[in-house]
Amino acid sequence: MVYMGKGSKGGERASTRCEDELQHFLNQIMSLYQEDPKMKILFYLAELGKPASIRKIARNVRMSHKNVIKHVNALERANLVQVAYRQSNLTLYRLSDNVRLRTLSFMNCTLHNVTLSDPSSP
């Protein structure tokens, strides 16, 4: 749905709700990312795209093993991260299905907006 912002005139560029939500979401994420070690872990797992051990996460987000365990446990309680594999002394973590679905929805919204704003698209 396309709508005109407050005080918009006919000649001004119409914006979509999805674009506004996207910008707001990105601003929130970036401010959290700079401050919160949990966000660093979430971004790392999202970029990696496959399960990772505590050791691998700690090395790549430059945090102590102990702190990564604490933050991953909190993320697991919040249903943002889940165990992908567990055997005796090795546990691998990945983004939860819930987070992956939200990421896909977010990407779909972004692609939809790119298509709408592309003058060459049908």
TrEMBL record:
Pfam families found in the cross-reference section: HTH_5
Q: Which GO terms describe its molecular function?
A: DNA-binding transcription factor activity
Q: Which domain of life is it from?
A: Archaea
Domain HTH arsR-type: where? Answer: 39-82
Coiled coil: which residue ranges? none
The name of this protein is: Predicted transcriptional regulator
Organism of derivation = Aeropyrum camini SY1 = JCM 12091
* Taxonomic lineage from the root: Archaea, Thermoproteota, Thermoprotei, Desulfurococcales, Desulfurococcaceae
